[in-house]
Structure formats: C-alpha cells, structure tokens
Amino acid sequence: MALQAGLKRGAGAHGAKVGKKLAILLTSSAIILVTPGISSAQTAKPAATARRDISFAIPAQPLTAAIKAFIRATGWQVGYPAALLQNKSSSAISGRMAPEAALGAMLAGTGISMRVTGPETVALIGEADAATAVDGGDSTVLGTITVDGTNKGVYLGTDSVSDTGTTTIAAGQIVARSAGNDANDILRNLPNVQYQNDVDDDAGVSDQDVIDLKPREVSIAGGRVYENNFLLEGMAINTVTGSEEFGTGAELDDLDRGSPPAQERFFGLHSQSVYVPTDFLQDVTVIDSNASAVYGNFQGGVVSYRMQQVSTDRWTGSVSTDFTTSDWTGYHVASKSGLNPTGVATPDYLKRRQAISISGPITDNIAILGQYSCQTAVTEKDKDYQYSESQRVGEEAQNEFYRAQIKATTDLGDFTLEGVYTDYVQAWEYASWRNMRIDQIAQGLNTKLQHDYEFSDFDLAGMALSNVRLESKLGYGTSDNINDMNGNVARAYKQTFYRSNRKLFEATELSGISDWCRTPPGITTTTICYDGATGDKEQGQEQLTWSQDLSGDVGNGSFKLGGEYVHTDAYRRRPEDATYYGVYTSKGEAGVTGFVCKTTEECNEEQYASNKTVYKAFDVDAKLNQFSAYAEVEQTWEWFNLRAGGRVSYDDYMKNVDLAPRVVATITPWQDFSISLGANRYYNAQSLAYAIRERQPRPVTSTRNILKPAEENWKELAETYFTSSATGLDTPYTDEFTVGLSGIEPLLGGQWRLRFMDRRSKDQFASDKSGNSYTLTNNGTGAYQSVSAEYSKELKAPELPGLDALLFNASVTWSKREVSNDSYYEDSFEDDYIYYKGQSYSKAGFSVVTGNMDIPVRFQTGLSSSWLDDALKLDVTANYNLAYTAALDTEDTISVDGKQHSIYEDFDFKSLMTFDLAASYEVYKKDNAGLSFNVRVENVFDQIGNGKTSDTRPWVIGRTFWVGAKATF
Questions:
Q1: Which SS3 state, helix, strand or coil, does residue 556 take?
Q2: What pLDDT score does 236 carry?
Q3: pLDDT band at 84; cut points 50, 70, 90
Q4: Cβ(643)–Cβ(632) below 8 Å
C-alpha cells in the first residue's frame, strides 16, 4: 500500500540521523549531570484528580501559595481564618499519596491543624481552636473564607493575580471538547480562540478531509495560525521553517478541484512539529493575553500541554481503544443551490485509535514511563471518468506518537530525561490525473534533559531570598516533512480538440493515450488528460536549545530570571529536476495533417508539447542563532499588586535587538475582587520561512512552435521574481492593552472574569509588486479587539440519587479582527481581486475590511458530572454563535480598470448552536484495576454551519459518534 511504502521511505530518511541525534543527546546528558544547566520556561498548572492517591510535587513556600497549589492539584475546598496563614511557610511534599495525607505533611511544623468537613472539603484551624475541638467545643467559630480552586474542568487564572489571560482545562472537559485524538480541539470556543471560518465558500468535505489526522490549526487573540507558541512538557514544538505556502491551494484536497497542481507548493505542512494526542493529557493551559515575560516567540498565544507524569510508588498502566465510521456520521448537502447535481457520493471512512501507557519505579529514586498512541484512517474515492484504468482508489493515514520519560530524585536535585516523537503518513491519489500519488510524511522529535534544584534560603546584597529554584534544560529536536511522489515528469495531453462545438481532433493509438484516456459522454468541448507526477520535495529543521530559569520569593512577592539560546538549522530541497509539459498542441488545432518531429522530446505525429516548465533541483538551508533573556518581579503591597518585567532577544538572521516590556498592575479594593491593567509587547523572530524560500530557484518556462523553423527550439519566457529576504527588515511585533475584572462571586463562590483586550500588530511582513518582481516589506498591519466574560465553579450537587459532583463553566466573547496579509506571502501574488460596495480590493487587502475566521459573538458552556461513586461520568459542552452579517462571494464577476473582479455582497449568517457529549462507565473496579466503556457524540443535534459547499464537494459533516473502552491497572 502507498501508506506502507511511505512509512518505509520516511523511516529510511529519518534513520540516517539516529546516530547523530543519539550522540547529541548523550552529550546533553553529560553536560547537565556535571552542571545544573538549562531550561525552557513552563508554568505548573492545575491537575485533575479523583478521590484517590495522586502525585504531588509542591515545594516549600509561603503557606498561602502552597495551599493554592494544593487546591489546584486536588480540586479540594479549603477554608481558613483570614489571618491564619500569614508569615507561615509550608513543608515540601513529593510523591504519590492521598490528598488528606499530603495536606497534613504540608502543614507539619506550622502549628495549624485541619478538620475534614466533607468528601473534598477541609477547614484549617489554629492550635487554640484545635484544642477547643478536642475538648468538645463544637461551637468554635472559624470565620473562614473559601479558596475556590475546586474546578477540575476549567480553571481561570493561576496563583498570580496578573495572569488574567490564562485558562487551564483538565478532567472531563478534555474528553468532551476533543474531537478524535486531536489535543488542539480542546481549545475550541475558548475566549479569543477561533477555528471556524463561516465565509468559506467551499467548505465541503473531501476524501482527504475525512482521513486528515493532523491537529486543528487555530487562531489565538487575532494572531495567524502559525504565530502561536506550542509547548509540550516545556519543549517548544513549533515549525519555524514555515507552515504556509504561496497563496492558496496548499492542501491535498485542493488539487482534486480539477486544476493542474502547483509543482512548487509543499502539501501537508503544519505549524507544529509534534502532533499531540489526547490519550495522555493531564491538562492544557492557554495564555491569550497578559503573558509573563517567561514566554516569547509568539504574536498569537501560548499553549502548554502537560502530560501524565511517572509513577514513583507503584507500577501503573492503561490500555485504550476506540473507533468511528462514516456509517455513524450525519452528512448534509450545503451547496448554495441546496442540490447535489452531479450525484457526488458521501466520503466513506473508518478511523481507529489505540493507546498504551505504563509507568513505575525501577529503584527507590528512579522511575520510568512509556506511552504509545496510534490512530489510523482509511477511505476510498472515485477517479474521474476519463481515466479508465481505475475507477476506485483507496487512501489512508496513520499517526503514531511515542513518549518516554525517566525521572531520578537525588541529593543534587531532580533529573528528567524525556522524549516525544510523531510519525505521520497520509496517502493521496489525484482523481483528475493518471499516475500522480503523494505520500505526505511528517516526522517530529523533541527531547530534553532537565535538572531541577532547590536552594536553601539565603541573603543577597541584603535581600532575603527564599524558595529559590533553578530549572536547567538541554533540548534537541528535529522536524522532517516529505512529499514523496511517484515521478518527476508530468504531461497534459489532448484527447479531443473542439472548436465551435466541432471536433477537429481525436487521439488514436499513435498518441499512446487512447488506451487510458477517454472523453466523457456528451462532452463537446476539448478533453485534456493529465499524466505523471511533479517530483519529491523535502523541508525540515533541526534545533538545539539551552536555557536556564531561576525563580523564588523576594520581598512581598516573587522574581523570575532566565535565558535561552536556540540554534536552528532549516532546509528545503527538491532532489531532482521536475518537468511539466503544459497542454499539448494537436494537429487539429494547428490545421495540419500531422507533425514532423525533429526531436523526440514530447512530440509525435498527432500532438506535441508547445510549452514546458522546469522546476530545478535545489538543496538550500539557513541557520538561525537566537539569544533571549528575561527578568520579572511581582510584588504585593496590601491592596496593590504589580508584575513588571521584560524580554530581550537577538537573532543573527534579521539582526535586530527586540525588547518586549510586560507590565500588569492589579488593585484589590476588597476581598475576592480585583481590577487589572496590562500593557505588553510580543515579538516572533524565530522563523526561517523566508530565508529558505529566498534561495529557492524560480521555475523556468519555455515555449516552442515546431511549425516555424525559427521557433522550433525552446525559448525561455520572462520570469516572475520574489525577493523573500527578511534581512534588514524590522521584526514584526504586537502591542497589547488589557483591562480585567475578576473575583469570587458571593452567591455560589464561583470564579468569574471579565476582560477587554486591544491588540495592534505592526511591522508585519507584506509584499510590494513592481513589474514582475515582488519584494518583502514591513508594510503589513493588524488589529484585534475582544470583550469576554467567563465563569467556572464546582457546584453543590443537588439531592439527586447517585450524583456525586457537578462542575460548570461558561463564557461569552465578542471579537473583531483585521489582518492586512493573512499568510507568509501576499495573496495578491495570484492577482485575485474583489469588488465590494463599489470599491476594488486585492484578495489580501479585502481581509482588512472583513477580518478572517471572525464570528463576532460566541457563547460556550460546559457541564461535567460524576455519578455512582465516580463510576459514571457525563460531560457536555454547548457552543452558540449569534447571527451576523458578513461579505460573501456571489460567484459573479465584473471588470474594473481592465482587471477581473469577483463580486462580494453582504450575507446574513444564521445563528448556530451545537452540543457535544462524552460519557464513560466503569463496569469493573478492584483496587487500582478497572475497566470502563466510553462514548462521545460530536454535534449531538446534527447541525451544520454557515460555510457553503461547491457542487464538486457538496457534503458537510454533522453528527459523529466514537465508541471505545479503557482498562487501567
């Protein structure tokens, strides 16, 4: 099969680098074991738990902060007198234990006792109150407050009141929000996260859509989909070699719309180098605003995935499987006419997923973890009628994920060695060509060796420092993308030639195509048959990172310092020349009885190639060295909190020193209510997309006319030139201003947050055209504004039989986005123009008027519940988009100043509400072993969106089902 062949070829290409990677990793180990080295910032986030033993790693720190960390880790409610925790520090806790035992160990030596008041609630009391309780004084009035960190589904913010733009999702909401095995789907409909595009006028699914297992691309806070910083266990998994291509049409299914392929385009690129599955996720944290100076290299947002950690006290494991099929899928025709005139069949597919995880201690201080996940998808499609050799072809995709972790606890600190690897293959065959197949291969590897060390309290220049921690990290990663094709010569033959509905030519056996190319019945226009393929292409990167982060407590708050060095080596190559012989000239249109070929190059008596384009072989690379450092201090004086810092970076490609200040000021006029103002700047200079494309040779097009002796030899035509160099340009950046209100509402004690964000993107990359030349500039701009309100709470479960817990979250968001250029390269390279309300726009310039992926008002809510002593879990999410008006293509055209324009008019989009449901039931439980069955229903009520489809791809997907099982031990 094509998939198997692609796997073998991909494995071969990757295997050649194994020795080099192993050597680098071993060297990394040696460096860190000798000196506490290197780090990439990652903030600990809330974890989901049940009422069982869980893993803790809470260092000694001020007791207030430690209690908040305990709440986030367990979901328990903790009440205490307001002044009880002042000037007290906790004991460190580490390892797997029951929450009650962990809290007791953390309080050791503080003089504070605890009183368990419910299944997951506890009150803290001082020594006097504890003595009263022992003596039977049940009337003790604690005057407690409740710290609400109980939400095991959605948690707003962190310990820092400055993190008003941070949201963490865990527990059942991970399952309910994710489609298939895609971790990025968890981000759906979060405030300031956009993934829907209602103005898409060809939104129908194809064979490649239904088997595409790559993560969903998302826009965060108005940024482009490739302007986010994705972190997996603290490792950056971003593609810096480019995930976009010239203009549009860089998806495999775009080729099946009937036009000849673009030989220079790379198909299947993605903004992430590692595809994260949901199987092993513990939680996901999204930062869409007020990002700490710890984070850099983004203009959109930061997404941090935290996975399950090693088990240090016993061996644990799990095995799971689930699947879905097109037989359980709701299909709907969504064409503008509401019809399926050509009778296109719905795409059939079958998707399966398996996952296995095992972890445990191998010595008293060393534990290991291994995880593997595999998802497969298969489908079939029809070839076009005129290609008579085969009418039905199979296609498939496979996405494998590997993870290994070793953790050692020593007197010199904790050491963690970890690696993650993605191996992805998606096979495709062109329905409108003969002999064109592509195996789109993506392989991504990230490894890290991390050292965590905690210092004893000390003084520095008269300043008392406590809870000082050093995180050092050395990382190595690669990303390889391959378009593996079955040839490098393509041709466009004529089967018939018509002029004024009169047939002047029909190919015979002499042409060599009559045995596989035929004219569809009833066709009275020229028939062209395509044959061959357009050659292999490869693109990838290799990265080495070294970083250190130092944090601790000072004065009335905390500090953070860090630095990072990243070396990137990027490449893009075409191993061999590729040649495309454009549409042939037939003897019928030339008005001759036959051609006399003076050359054997694509010529016979019936037809000859009158033009050709040669895509030269090339192998280009570019290197980037980036240095960055940050410093940040957060201090609290009674009712006023200030977090101030900055991040400075320099790279040797653009050669700019970029300073990004970050400031958030918060006042708390009364308990459980805060007002924050933030002003931040974000840069993203870690991209080599322009550097490697700048050196890529342009195609050479030639023409000939064998009927004219003076023109029978190939004559090269004028080329179009692109200058893609970003050297000498300014680094694109985004300035952000935020206002936030947050607190704990008094009625139910839930978290709430109200935010306003205004972003202005400046010095963005764009292009200027002069004649046949395009030049990269800093003339691009962008803007994004939003207002959002959010709420999250573990509700008091009503008196329903069997109901154990109930968690609720909701949000509403209004947003508006404007982007002058929406891809790496100006869309107007293709000279597409739009006519709207009496004015002419380039396709790219039009997005300034309409925005992109914009749905102005969106509501989201989630409800998670557990029943029957946690045996049954039900999770529901609902999403509602308000009706709005946007511009849409009418499919009519008009000529303005000699240029053809597509006419756009305002269109009213209807409101849309969808529900997703996830359920699991544990049918067997004994000690730590269990077996559960699960079902997930996406789009429960089978709704369809506002996107319109074409007659060639008329179907959209409504409701889908997944069923599966999971065993744990």
A1: coil
A2: 95
A3: confident
A4: yes
Interatomic CA distance for residues 337 and 952, integer angstroms: 12
Same-domain status, 481 and 494: no
Write phi, then psi, for 847 (nearest 5 degrees): -65, -20
List the structure tokens of 685.
């200079």
Tell me the β-bridge partners of 459. 464
Asked whether 745 and 723 are in contact (CB, 8 A), the reply is no
Give the residue carrying structure tokens 């030519």. 505
pLDDT tens-digit readout, 496-525: 999 988 899 989 888 888 888 888 888 888
Domain C-terminal end among 148, 180, 201: 148
Write down the residue that tokens 């250029």 correspond to: 821
- Pick the last residue of a domain from 94, 116, 148: 148
Instruction: State whether 175 and 264 are in the same domain.
Output: yes
> Which of 268, 314, 230 lies closest to 6, judged by CA?
268
**In Å, how far are 172, 193, 219 from 189, measured between CA atoms?**
16, 6, 11
- Res 195 pLDDT > 70: yes
Per the prediction, the chain carries an average pLDDT of: 82
pLDDT tens track for 653-679: 889 999 999 999 999 998 889 999 999
Rounded average pLDDT over 525-547 = 92
Residue 53's CB is within 10 A of a number of other CB atoms, namely 18
Whether 421 shows a pLDDT value over 80: the answer reads: yes
Residue 643 forms part of a structural domain: yes
Report the number of secondary-structure helices (H) and strands (E) in the chain: 11, 52
pLDDT of residue 26: 36
Indicate if 919 and 829 belong to the same structural domain: yes
Model confidence pLDDT, tens digit, residues 931-949: 999 999 999 999 887 777 7
For the chain, the C-alpha Rg in angstroms (whole number) is 30
d(CA 281, CA 182): 11
- Give the domain extent around 168: 2-41+155-310+380-488+533-577+616-968
- Name the DSSP class of 101: H
Residues 609 and 634 in one domain: no
Distance CA 361, CA 369 (A): 9
Find the mean pLDDT for residues 128-152: 45
Helix (H) or strand (E) holding 21: helix 18-34
Return d(Cα 63, Cα 333) in angstroms, integer.
59
Q: What is the pLDDT of residue 521?
A: 83
Give the contacts of 70 (CB within 8 A, at least 6 positions apart): 56, 58, 76, 78, 99, 102, 103, 106
Which DSSP string do the residues of 368-404 spell out, in sequence order?
EEEEEEEEEEEEEEEPPTTBTT-SEEEEEEEEEEEEE
Q: What is the pLDDT of residue 273?
A: 95
Q: Are residues 630 and 540 in the same domain?
A: yes
Number of domains in the chain: 3
Strands 489-499 and 578-586: parallel
> Are residues 208 and 246 located together in one domain of the fold?
yes
Q: Which strand (E) or helix (H) includes residue 255?
A: helix 252-255
In a domain, 331, yes or no: no
Judgement on whether residues 99 and 11 belong to the same structural domain of the protein: no
Q: For residue 8, what pLDDT is reported?
A: 42
191 forms beta bridges with: none
In a domain, 761, yes or no: yes
- Asked whether residue 284 falls in the same domain as residue 404, the answer is yes
- In this predicted model, what pLDDT tens digit does every residue of 345-376 receive, in sequence order? 888 999 999 999 999 999 999 999 999 999 99
Q: How many CB atoms lie within 10 A of CB 350?
A: 16
Distances (CA, A) of 518 to 241, 507, 510, 511: 42, 9, 15, 13
Q: How far apart are the first and last CA of the chain?
A: 37
Could you tell me which residues come within 8 angstroms of residue 103 by beta carbon, excluding any fewer than 6 positions away? 70, 76, 78, 114, 122
Confidence at 717, pLDDT banded by 50, 70, 90: confident
